Amino acid sequence: MVRTAVAELLEQRTFTYPLSVLPMIVHAVETGAPEPAVPLAVVHELWWTSACCLDDLADGQGAFAAGDLSESEALLAAVISGNPLPLLVVQSQRIPESVRGTLSAEIVQCWITATEGQLRDLRGDVGAATRDSVVAAYLGKSGAPFSMVTAMAAELAGAAKERVQLWREFGDVFGILWQIFNDQEDILSGRNEDLLNGTVTYLLACALGETAPHSTEYVLGLHAAARKSPHARAELTDILLAPAVLRQYAKDIDELRGEGHRLLEELGGDETYLSVLRDLLDQASQMLLQGR
């Protein structure tokens, strides 16, 4: 039954962007060969399937849907797919025995860091939110899993500790950018899940720093009301898309993109695959929102 439940969860949770290939690309930058990192791509897919399911269950907005799985079944499947299954993957014969312990530790540490980020998100004090505090949450929610797989790929490739650390830093930057990319898509799609859930996003932190002509208290009031009020959501969206807010937002995205490119330049490696990573970084750092 475990196999069936996990298979159902994986079937229902399909991702628009195939970022599970990221560890394969990193391994290929180091060695010229992506194939040995296929197990790490599996780990990445399992991890995100689990994390997204747990996130949906934690948000609790409306009826949960995961095929024929009940909420309780989906919760159990998410726990299995995110924890023991990735550990079994990196303990398999396809992974050299010399790095199995190291890769297993990466998975465990990722869950600790990601949970910390999610707790920051759930308990976020919107009144005290700053751009730095949101980045700290994003480093856990999204930075941790990306830095996990980039570091794991480098470790599997036999990279020196200094290079592993640089790959970890790149994963952190990529993860923050990817979370910001997702935040923008949430608005553009009309889903507005962040507003419905009361999530403290980086864009909201930018707006709180640029509240004129509105007071901070007024923006905070709209944010609280937006969970239930379509009118409040619409008005808050107008504030979020104000030109001054988007200028700061775009500036910070550009700085993160620049840091990502700097890290790739310092890392070097197989140019064919390095160019793929540059393209992924540029896609993740697009400025999609436009002012109103």
What does this structure look like?
With 292 residues, the protein is mainly alpha-helical. It has a single domain (2-284), classed as Farnesyl Diphosphate Synthase. The chain is built from 14 helices and no strands. It has helices at 2-12, 22-31, 38-59, 71-82, 84-90, 97-122, 131-156, 161-189, 193-197, 202-208, 216-225, 230-240, 243-267, 271-284. Helix 2 packs across helix 7 (131-156), helix 10 packs across helix 13 and helix 13 (243-267) runs antiparallel to helix 14 (271-284). The mean pLDDT is 91.
Describe the secondary-structure layout.
Elements: H1 2-12, H2 22-31, H3 38-59, H4 71-82, H5 84-90, H6 97-122, H7 131-156, H8 161-189, H9 193-197, H10 202-208, H11 216-225, H12 230-240, H13 243-267, H14 271-284
Helix pairs in contact: 1-4, 2-7, 2-14, 3-4, 3-5, 3-7, 6-7, 7-8, 8-13, 10-13, 11-12, 13-14
CATH topology: Farnesyl Diphosphate Synthase
Q: How many individual domains?
A: 1
State mean pLDDT (0 to 100 scale).
91
Structural class: mainly alpha
